Known about the structure:
Elements: E1 3-8, H1 17-30, E2 35-40, H2 42-45, H3 52-69, E3 77-80, H4 86-95, H5 100-104, H6 107-120, H7 123-137, E4 143-145, H8 151-168, E5 177-179, H9 214-222, H10 240-253, H11 257-263, H12 269-295, H13 298-327
Parallel strand pairs: 1-2, 2-3, 4-5
Helix pairs in contact: 3-12, 4-7, 4-13, 7-8, 9-12, 10-12
Bound molecules: adenosine-5'-tetraphosphate.
Adenosine-5'-tetraphosphate (AQP) is lined by residues 8-9, 11, 16, 18-19, 22-23, 146-147, 149-150, 186-187, 196-200.
Binding site for ATP: 9-11, 18-19, 147-149, 187, 196-200
EC number: 6.1.1.2
InterPro entries: aa-tRNA-synth_Ic, Rossmann-like_a/b/a_fold, Trp-tRNA-ligase, Trp-tRNA-ligase_bac-type, Trp-tRNA_synthetase
Amino acid sequence: QQRIFSGMQPTSDSLQLGNYLGALTHWVALQEEHDALYCVVDLHALTVNPDPAVLRERTRRTAAQYLAAGVDPSRSTLFVQSHVPEHAELAWVLSCHTGFGEAGRMTQFKDKSARHGSEGTTVGLFTYPVLMAADILLYDTNLVPVGEDQRQHLELSRDLAQRLNARFGKDTVVVPEVHIVKETAKIYDLQDPTAKMSKSAESPNGLIELLDDPKVVAKRIRSAVTDADREIRFDPQAKPGVSNLLTIFSALSGRSVASLEQDYEGKGYGDLKKDLAEVVVGFLTPFQARVHDYLADPASLDAVLADGAEKARTIAGVTLDRIYDRSGLLPRR
Length: 333
Ligand code: AQP
């Protein structure tokens, strides 16, 4: 069986619809046929210096959202990154194989550091993609399901894997492949349909958070930016706002974009938005109820995570020992 690994940062109380459509729904589908590990990457969230109590709460909330989306702990290994110390240990080794200029070329770092300013930008934000490579390589991962924004980081993981294999022997680590589903690779902000929807968006108005009040979500969809034209047609270049709404509609309803275009021929943007709001709220309402059930029983949630960490460590330990050994570190006795 092919091995899958992916994770999300607990950087917000709620995941957003882009996280769900770009990654989480694919995780759920892939767990059927693969050996999957899904992680709440809390060490990554430290890069933006969160409040400690808030981070702890968000870590549980993120795990609860994975479960509510359908990640099944009897099929997949679900765990918290900091519970498996090998992630941080391998990140150090990989950072010694990463060029300074190479890390500096990461566009997410350039964007985020521009937002935080040079004093607000931590070294952790700079080395973030190296920790991500460690997350992936530790599990001899074959496939990494993510959204389009992670493509460049995945390329770095592949480069690092190839570098390790060239230096220490070709079976040192598995070179991972990226798994990006074209249709939902990038969900856009409702108010700025040229920017990706993001947990840390400056304004919440373009964002659909999975745990938002459904009334607020419906209102945000009704106020989504479209264009002056009246035609409901999928054309991301000319009509980014309408195309984004069609993508979301199609992904959540299972109806193809072509059939939606046909059904809405001659109708107005208001009709499309009203129906889409219903579809989104219809999805969110039971989802939120499931999240609240998981959060109402933190002891069981923590037990699932502890079990996942134990399983993950048995794989991670073997990989780390192999890489330490090939790097020339003296074995501990
Ligand atoms: N808008 C999006 N469309 C499709 N996929 C998306 N992803 C994120 N936004 C979209 C995918 O969701 C996963 C989340 O990864 P992350 O938590 O490491 O953070 P991120 O990629 O930086 O996502 P956010 O929501 O923008 O978080 P913040 O604001 O914390 O940086 C990844 O698979 C990502 O591709």
